[in-house]
Amino acid sequence: MARDRFKSSPHSSFRLCRKGNRTTDGRQYNIPTTSEVAGLIVGDFTKLNCHRDIIVEHQTTGLQRITYLHPSFMSITYPLIYPYAEDGYRTNIPLRNLSNNESKRQKLTMKQYYCFRLQQRLHEGKSLLLGGRLLQQYIVDSYMAIEEERFRWIINNQTKLRADLYSGLMDVVHRGDSDWSTVGKSIILPSSHTGGPHYKAQNYQDAMTICKWVGYPDLFLTFTCNPKWPEIKDMLQKISQKDHENRADIVCRVFEIKLVQLMQDLKTEQPFGQIIICLYTIEFQKRGLLHAHILLFLHQTTKNPSGDHIDNIITAEIPDPHVDLDAYNAVKNFMMHGPCGSSKPKCPCMVQGRCSKLYPKKFVDKTIIDAEGFPIYRRRKTNITICKKDIFLDNRSVVPYNRNLLVKFDAHINVELYNFSRAIKYLFKYLHKGSVRAIATIESSDKGEGNDEIKIYLDCRYISAAEACWMIFQFDIHYRHPSVERLPFHFLDNHTVVFRENNCVENVLSMPGMEKTKFTELFEANKKYVEARQLSYSDFPIQ
Length: 543
What we know:
By secondary structure, this protein is of the alpha+beta class. The chain is 30% helix and 18% strand.
């Protein structure tokens, strides 16, 4: 149909260009460094703009508008994956209950459906999994449909849940107002919405609360996915695939398994000592691979370690291949920075002629802590070097690591000693910079007069296949242990009450315990128990 339309009414061709704008936040708007299929969401969702404009042309009835909930939506969009025009997701698909127990949810959700479709099974057709770039587009399109449905539900149900202060409801009763839909304020986006601004803000505040309770973090780890893991290769070989770039689903699943195992090893095997608190967040960048930023809080007995103790847990030197060949190969593959500097002035880390990561470092015979509290790791001058891109690198270019973790997980695991709260701020930097975004322009590719001007400027949210897969599988983008209890604080009769739009205010106020909160119960406990008066508000959950 596209061919027929072009023959009947040829038009000028257009192209979508990604732009790098130095006037914006480089972390948020940077150019992708890998070739991948990604989705660009133009603008933000509103009540009038919460759906895609999907139009198909029927051979007899002409143009028709369909929604992403139409059973034929995916088959029309991806005819190579659905050659027989099979139905895709539709509403009211019964949810199979294997345990024969009554469940609150009786219908299959869109996320469950696409999560099922992205699984690799030996006795099923593999047209989707072997789709290559088309699979990446399918994954991104599926996640966008899920997000679109979630936002649509939130927008359409803004008036169903209301929140107002307890004293405000009492005023409504005294005034005799009868229009309950005008009472309260709308809940715009709940903190349970993963990745939303309230979700990130609450996690950031929880992390800062942990710092207030136990002090600054001690170690900062960066764990990056290795696409050459044997588990990934084995899954690809089962269906005669070789390239991992087009199987974001396998990469995400294996990385999540490895990440869980890493966290267990840190807590049980204790390579850095006893850990009392650990945090991590998953970062999605335009680099094609996932990575996790991990913060570790050590027990008081292992804080402020000496230089000799740091050398036992953190290394910044190339191992001797004649003594430890496994560690040498791991450092060669994952922990060498560069080459950069004058030998590679076009390296991505180079800014104004200097390495932004301050490599190569200086030779140091012994680990020391400088005046500002930062460690300077031991980097002795030896004859052991590693050749990368025809350039020999020595200990000055080694990224700090832990030997046992590096060899076991066979991936980039950067370990840094840290004792400042800025690590928490870095961990949740998305709270300040927002979602990963892209700057794009739509330009004419013709060479006619005036056709080279920018026609449309787009500020888009950037969704990669890896991020889409991670969210579809419902993997955690934030992990925290132990948990944090959030305590409300308010004036007398000014606590927040949540109620439905069709609830009568008198019925809301008459609900048992409606006037009680954790804060009011604190004062009640102080009235009854003398020992409670010795505890602060934040001490109550601990006791």
